[in-house]
Design a protein that fits this description.
The chain has a six-stranded antiparallel barrel with strand order 2-11-14-13-12-15. The protein has a four-stranded antiparallel sheet with strand order 3-10-8-5, with no helix packed on it. A four-stranded antiparallel sheet has the order 7-6-4-9, with no helix packed on it. Among the domains are: about 90 residues, Elongation Factor Tu (Ef-tu), domain 3; about 80 residues, Helix Hairpins. By secondary structure, the chain is of the alpha+beta class. Helix 2 runs antiparallel to helix 3. It is about 25% helix and about 35% strand.
Amino acid sequence: MRPHLSLLSLLALSLLGCDNKKPEQAQQQGGAMPVQVQPVKVQRVDISTEYIGTIKSRGATMLQPQVEGQITKILVHSGERVRAGQSLMQIDPLKQQATVNTQEATRRAREAQLVLTAKQLERTRSLAQAGVVSKQELDQAESTYEAAKADVDALHASVNEQKEQLRYYNVTSPTEGVVGDVPVRVGDRVATSTLLTTIDSGSGLELYLSLPAEKAADVHLGTPIDIQPPGDAKPVRVQVTFISPRIDPQNQLLLVKADLPRDDPRFRNDQEIHSKIIWRATDLPVIPFTAISRLGGDMFAFVAETADNKSVAKQRHLTVGDMVGNDYPVLDGLKPGDTLITSNVQMLADGMPVQPITGQPNGKPPGETTGQGGAK
């Protein structure tokens, strides 16, 4: 029994010693929470805003028929390069050709009538000079001739119009370029609103951005824009080359454009792409995102301040810009040299005693994270 009593006695003494150390440690720390701190530093950052832009080609043509009818031939295929004026498709012209033939036949009949009217006018003039017919009969003959002549001229113009209309049944390429998708098939009936295909000459791509009206005073010709190609590629910087002189009255948006690099296969017509307008570059305090706490949609940070010979955490309301890497530029709420608390921020309260610690046990600089949760 004695050995067991000895073990119990040792265990009780050990627990008593631990209990005695806890108050000593708490007394040494003064109830303050240990936190990592670092001075707020200033960095050159871009003040920017992100938008979704649309890429459009200046050389892309949407081809629609100018007449209605049934497609009888498709003479090209998607991806084929064509020249200006080359035939692409044919729409059944038989009905229009019949109209042209009818108009020409009517014109020939009216021309024959005009010849007869002209002869009658000459006879009437001769008789009028001989005093056989009255002046009224001569005037009537001249009026009949002029009406017949006007009728023939009108029919002649109508025939030319119908022949010109006949030309539209042969669909040709307006420019040199590459044929896009051909959504129609032989036998389809098309209207003037039907999309037959597209022709892209590849003459240049433009970025279209719609900005809120309140940004109209901030954007200028030459304002830089960073566009993000698909994937993790480095952003491509372009510049504003066009600013619309008017605000769209329906949505109160301002259209701006920027020329894109030529022959870059990463950019395509009608592609939507992330774009960032750089309004200006300035020196601002920056803090790591791990030092920020959020409450009700607002952002806060804690700084260590000295009061009555002890350090306390003071909460600061922040106004920040877009994230740069893993840091936020601070527009308002901090100043260079403030002692920023970078750890245990979710456990702090305004005025809470803290024990500032500079550096980290693992040797990493304050604010650097080792997990996978950082923003990219």
